[in-house]
Amino acid sequence: MDSHNHAEFTSLITHQLREPLTQIKWAISLLVNGEAGELNPEQKDFLDKALKSGEHALSLIDDMLKADKIESGITDLFFVEADIVEILQGIVSELKPRAEDKKIDLSFDGSHKNIPPISIDADHIKEALLNVVENAINYSLPNGSVHVSALQKGGVVEIIIKDTGIGIPDEDALKIFSKFFRARNAKEAHIQGSGLGLYIVKAIIEKHNGKIHFEKNETGGTTFFIDLPLNN
What we know:
Layout: H1 3-32, H2 41-72, E1 80-82, H3 84-101, E2 105-109, E3 118-120, H4 122-138, E4 145-153, E5 156-163, H5 184-188, H6 197-207, E6 211-216, E7 222-229
Parallel strand pairs: 2-4
Antiparallel strand pairs: 1-3, 4-5, 5-7, 6-7
Helix pairs in contact: 1-2, 2-6, 3-4, 4-6
């Protein structure tokens, strides 16, 4: 796809698809909130389902736009010295209510307080880490746990996100960071996703000269390891 066609494609997604969907979502939200009169339970149930479908479609479009920017090389990174521990603490605080709703014990080990600031694009790294922690919550069963920690390991900061979730089947392990790929057990569990989240995460981490991989936990679930260099 040449640059002209690429720009037209991005414009199509952004304006001709995203904006109408946003308006539809806004209108349904007003109805659900009773702005046009009280709804009976059946009407509210139908609209709640429509609202969730609209939110999922918008999330998919946003992920497609992010992936498109990454592939076309137009994702600009602005590196600053940032406190990765503070970023992780913020992510855990932000996702705590969602974890509690699912009866998931979300925790952060902040004992490694000697980790120095690192040079990163703070917004993109937060987006990537938020995605991995959010996935860990979404794919964990009630009464499970998600544990986040970080430590300095040689010339890198290693971020560890360990969950007690449904795990990743061995046959899917090599494809998990592929574009639009979703693991078989995730589909069977009817957990919504675009199949672009980990693809985008990996791209962001690699643009920071970092690495991401995962291991299967002996007691079930998955542990993701993200290494970010101390100096970029």
